[in-house]
Design goal:
Mean pLDDT: 75
Structural class: alpha+beta
Helix content: 25-40%
Shape: globular
Number of helices: 6
Strand content: 25-35%
Length: 191
Amino acid sequence: MLSVGLTFVTIHDMTEPSLQGGVRMNRTAKLKCLIIMAVIWPALVYGGEKSAKPEWEKMLKRDLVSVRGDKMIFQNHSLCKFGEKGQEKTVQLQVKTYGEAPLKGVISRDNFVSMTTELSTVFVLSVGAATSSPEKFLDSFDCTDLESPIGKPDIEVNLFITKEGFKAEFVDTMNNKRSGTTHTWTEVFSK
């Protein structure tokens, strides 16, 4: 089994100041998002046999956000594999993505889902891309949603949003390492 040293990234690693105020994704983060749009999304939508149709229909109809009391909750579990295809050096990580935000007055449901999934996706792709060359990584990358976790997830990506700001947290549960960043909305949008 291959052991992977995880590189933790922060919001600062993925963003840079924008001339219009706020922040925007840097080139590396944009490249990673383009990889998703160009390679992974078409494989999800068009891949598989016709018998897989009920699976993608179920996936597309699934609600990503639940409401608990006065909070929106986003929770997703996935199993991601990457490494050199056909080699024993493939890495398999179970990832838990969790987001929490007030139900009213701070962020729309759409922006909440967008922020949470973008944070998780860029982080997972950063970890995977660090394991091999981009070509080999793209050739072998595969993430599958799980209905529930299989034991304790290897990685946790957490996003907590309040009226004051947000905290992004990355937890490597295998090595008991935690990294994160906290920002006020004023700090983010006054740059």
